[in-house]
Amino acid sequence: MKKFSIVVAGGGSTFTPGIVLMLLENLDKFPIRQIKFYDNDAQRQEVIAKACDIIIKEKAPDINFIYTTDPETAFSDIDFVMAHIRVGKYAMREKDEKIPLRHGVLGQETCGPGGIAYGMRSIGGVIELVDFMEKYSPNAWMLNYSNPAAIVAEATRRLRPNSKILNICDMPIGIELRMAEMLGLKSRKEMVVRYFGLNHFGWWTDIRDKQGNDLMPALREKVAKVGYNVEIEGENTEASWNDTFTKAKDVFAVDPTTMPNTYLKYYLFPDYVVKHSNPNHTRANEVMEGREKFVFGECRAIAEKGTAKDSKLHVDDHASYIVDLARAIAYNTKERMLLIVENDGAISNFDPTAMVEIPCIVGSNGPEKIVQGKIPQFQKGLMEQQVSVEKLTVEAWIEGSYQKLWQAITLSRTVPSASVAKAILDDLIEANKDFWPVLK
Ligand code: NAD
Ligand code: G6P
Ligand code: MN
Q1: CA 200 to CA 275: how far, in whole Å?
Q2: Residue 277 contacts by C-beta under 8 Å, 6 or more apart in sequence?
Q3: Which residue of 5, 104, 163, 349 pairs with 34 in a disulfide if CB–CB is 3.0 to 4.6 A?
């Protein structure tokens, strides 16, 4: 059986060790001969890499492992790029979240002005990875989950329309795990779903078991009461995420014929979100004090001890969707998965050039879209506004246009007026001057 060579771009990510452990658990399904890490921050990456080197030597010594900041070394002789970079790192995420809050607007990693700011940083970084891949391994595929995925996907559609890049998000997977738990199913893969939307902006319209039985009625009863807030074995969900899972019941109430993505809370209840935010301590602070501290601490401990034997780092089971996706391409499995793809008629009454999140059948030649038909007025209206935010952001980046970025922020449902949008934009420009193109 062929063994694959992969490069993890954003080797220094907090998610890298969990993903490596997940890959090592799945070697029977997806054999690997080589893992490379690539990052543009050598020091950050080295901490994670030294620990992963030990983990790989202990669990799968046959795998060749290297880490580098040199693109040619990283991207030569590879089959897959697994990309999760965060341009500007947590220091800039913190600003994305705190600057809008200073103006009374919610601050979020991928939604509202914070997500737009992050998008303006990510586009160049992700396009650079695509170009490295095409230069050094033209037959490779990029599996991209770098955020903000909606804006990044639109940018790759515009700028690299023929590149082999698949954009995917784990939020629907995380929610489906909770649905499966509520329904008493052993696996979320027992559900066959219909879904439509934009990334972090979508709805399930149909959920059935493999026999075709409708699971929506039972789910509705539960979600109306607790949202998606259920105990998941082995998962210690943080308070802020539990709040998001609970709030899903209010999002659900706005249209009980569908099941909402949790991220809709930011668009439908922005006042609630602002009221429950601490402008001096946002999610970026929680992540730096929590996940980042834990992962980097554990990695340093592994390097010091020279063994990962009693490490508390755990397999990122969530991330096994990455193996499902790589296997679909490598083995033509025709797995049905939600991907972010160009609409092109799949949602028949929506912009054909929009990057939408819908079920696709994935095989060796990429995704085949499953038509979701016409969508209702309520969702269509919301999506038309949001997709315009995303398209204007990408146009602003390409053209260096202040005007278009102002329009993008003004159009976001999270922002009350053009004057507030302008004030936020001017602060964001100042904060992002090392990352954004110059806007005129
Ligand atoms: P992190 O800051 O810990 O890691 C990101 C790494 O990317 C850092 O080591 C940084 O140095 C590196 N990097 C930044 N710019 C780069 C560039 N231009 N080239 C190469 N490397 C670069 O962040 P994290 O919290 O671990 O998240 C990583 C990414 O994964 C983020 O974009 C996050 O939003 C995304 N994510 C996406 C999903 C999804 O559902 N799509 C799920 C989880 C995380
Ligand atoms: C979900 C989303 C990701 C997002 C992450 C944020 O998994 O799908 O797109 O990056 O949540 O998690 P964090 O713990 O960093 O706030
Ligand atoms: Mn996501």
Answers
A1: 21
A2: 101, 106, 107
A3: 5
Cα pseudo-dihedral 345, 350, 353, 355, rounded to 10: -100
Distance, in Å, from the CA atom of 33 to the CA atom of 37, rounded to the nearest integer, reads 14
In angstroms, rounded to a whole number, what is the distance separating the alpha carbons of residues 295 and 312? Answer: 9
Q: What is the CA radius of gyration of the chain?
A: 21
Separation CA 147–CA 123 (nearest Å): 10
Which residue puts its alpha carbon closest to atom 10 of ligand 2?
147
Q: Are 77 and 132 in contact (CB under 8 A)?
A: no
Instruction: List pLDDT tens digits, range 27-49.
Output: 999 999 999 999 999 999 999 99
Candidates 147, 316, 318: which one to mutate for ligand 2, based on the most atoms within 8 Å of Cβ? 147
Q: Is the pTM of this model over 0.85?
A: yes
> What beta strand segments (E) does 152-254 contain?
165-167, 191-198, 201-209
Which pLDDT score is estimated for 317? 83
259-260 sheet: strands from edge to edge? 191-198, 201-209, 259-260
| pLDDT at residue 235 in the model | 84
Binding-site positions: 93, 147, 169, 200, 283
Q: Which residues line ligand 1 (CB under 6 A)?
A: 9-10, 12-15, 39-41, 44-45, 84-87, 89-90, 125, 145-147, 149, 169-171
Q: CB–CB of 244/265 below 8 Å? A: yes
DSSP reduced 3-state for 296: helix
Q: Which of 321, 282, 264, 4 is nearest to 143 (CA)?
A: 321
